Amino acid sequence: MLDRLIDTSKTVTKPASWKDAVTDLEVDKIISTLTTSGEDVQCDGDAIVRFLTADPDEITQRSAMLDDFAKIEDIEGRITKCIEGITRLQYMMERSQTSSEDIYRQIAAWHGAAQYSTCVTMLRDELLGRDELTSPRLLNLKRQITALSQSTDFQNDARLLEAAKEWFQLPKDVYVGFNYVSGSGLDSIQVAAVDEEATPIESLIRETSLGQALPNSLEGLVPFPVLSQSAQLESYLIKQIEKRWSKKLARLKKELDKLALSDCQGLIALNEDFKFLRMGLRLIHAAKQKGCGLCRPALGSGPLQISQLMYPRLTLISEEPVVENDVTMEYGSFAVITGANHSGKTSYLKSVGQACMLAQLGFFVPAAAMRFTPVKTMFTLFSGEEDDELRYSRMGLEVQRIHTILQEADSESMVFFNEPLTSTNPIEAISLCVEWIVHFINTGITGFMVTHMHDIYFSLEKTLSEEKKRKFRSLVTITRRNDAHVLKNLYRVVEQEPSKTSYAADVADSFGISLEKLIEDPALREQAQRYQKDVSEQSLFE
User: Fold this and answer.
1) 533: left (phi over 0), alpha (psi -120 to 50) or beta
2) What are phi and psi of 539, to 5 degrees?
3) pLDDT in tens, 125-140
4) Name one GO biological process term (predicted).
């Protein structure tokens, strides 16, 4: 029995919360970026969550396989060739069981048997027959495929198929005779001859555009206006061919029944694993093409540490260099991220979330180094619109989500909040956020919150005990003024006390808007300036 390369039985708990996180953190968009047009690869949240795992050994095994494959030249092309071969094998095996006509079933079984032999040989010689392989699962599969190719059953199957080629060739061209009776029109239609060449019959009559002629099609000879009306004729013609080929088909069926095709279904099951690993390889190759470094995340105890992390999704789509940030976060701690508009707060939040989720897929991460402990559940709360059916307000939806988080998150969870409660008044929002963060810290839940409400920090500084304060951090995005005194975002994050300004004045100033231009009366302007100064220096909770 062939062993799977990816164990999806060790998936994460609370898949619904992970699915929300996949969407909110835009991990699905990363996977979609790595998928080429026409590929049968699912990039939705459900498909991604199936491969997420919190099992350290499973993560290590996956990243080890990617590390092996990344060292092999033209590896993506080799894996793609195997995927296409196994996909064809699966199609033929299914058609050999489901086709309505016996001749189609026999021909599909013939093709499937030949493709099975091709796939085993291709895996052995082109993909797994490499000296670079060191990962346990690839070495194990290499041993299994080699043993399969050397087995008595496989050798007997190969000899039987080779011998059958001497007397069985697949039909390519079918010649149809039309018998007319003078004055009475068409009397009968019969198969006149069949050319035997190694090309499969997909269908004798197929839909085609006007004026086109397709191989193996009678459409040009029998111009039925609607394709469905030709089904009875096609069935009749197939019966004619089966009648002419009755002895050959009977012999072919007898020979095909002798085939062992050992662990054919196990071979087909590997296709999902190869598609997954190819996705991980594409992430490595795409980042390298952008000139970005990648690391194989290491598992271990201690804090979450990521050195020179680049925003993963932006790394794949941006033509400009991506700013790097370092991440150090004790598990069980909570960080509040503040800063000016468009200064990179949400990008930083998503960067950390994407890196953690990619690591739990077993993928590499665009960073110099990463050390992490996998979490069993991940929760997100991103500000959004009202629901489509207008049953709940934006505030109502957020309250529903936070209720679930408060009920289900534990010390093995990680939470990401992006500007929560912006639809209610600031005092109420700050009070609720403070209450949540106190709960998270007391429960040992790791989390990040992006907010413009810097009073959350000042309130927590007064609320938390000295011991709990060690589990609370303030991260701020950095801005600088250039020579023209215009505010410039650096997209870097540092640990420091948040500024008490809302940055609105700076943003307005960058657009040439000032109190001097808005208020002409000197007395009123002075009053506004005093108010602005007082607000920037005092907290709502001071």
Assistant:
1) alpha
2) -95, 155
3) 999 998 889 999 999 9
4) mismatch repair
C-alpha pair distances (Å), 160 with each of 110, 117, 296: 11, 12, 46
- The strand pair at 298-299 and 304-310 is best described as unpaired
Among residues 367, 361, 364, 360, which one has the least CA distance to residue 311? 367
The length of the chain in residues reads 542
Which DSSP string corresponds to 400-438?
HHHHHHHHH--TTEEEEEESTTTTS-HHHHHHHHHHHHH
Residues 6+ apart with CB under 8 A from 327: 304, 305, 306, 309, 352, 355
In Å, how far are 316, 331, 344, 534 from 366, measured between CA atoms? 10, 21, 17, 43
Tokens representing residue 46 in the block: 């459900």
Helix (H, G, I), strand (E, B) or coil at 10: helix
Which H or E element spans position 479?
strand 472-481
What are the distances in angstroms from CA 324 to CA 113, 163, 267, 491? 52, 63, 42, 9
Each residue's pLDDT tens digit, 477-519: 998 877 666 677 889 999 999 976 656 556 555 555 555 655 6
| Biggest alpha carbon–alpha carbon distance for the chain | 111
> Which amino acid is residue 229, in one-letter code?
Q
- Residue 241's SS3 state is helix
Indicate the DSSP class of residue 8.
G
Strand partners, 371: 298, 305
Paired tokens of 86: 């196994």
Task: Supply φ then ψ for residue 405, to 5 degrees.
Answer: -65, -45
Question: To the nearest whole number, what is the mean pLDDT of the chain?
Answer: 84
Q: What does the pLDDT look like over 375-410, one tens digit per residue?
A: 999 999 997 654 444 455 677 788 889 999 999 999
**Tokens read off for 144:** 């299994």
Coil, strand or helix at 443: helix
Structure tokens at 60: 């290590």
The token pair that represents 29 in the structure block: 């968009």
Q: Do the beta carbons of residue 450 and residue 345 sit within 8 Å? A: yes
The span from the CA of 68 to the CA of 158, in Å, is 31
Please give the angle made by the CA atoms of 127, 89 and 256, to the nearest 5 degrees: 120
Question: By mean pLDDT, which of 185-199, 256-270, 407-421 is the weakest?
Answer: 185-199
CA–CA distance from 501 to each of 190, 350, 417 (Å)? 89, 24, 21
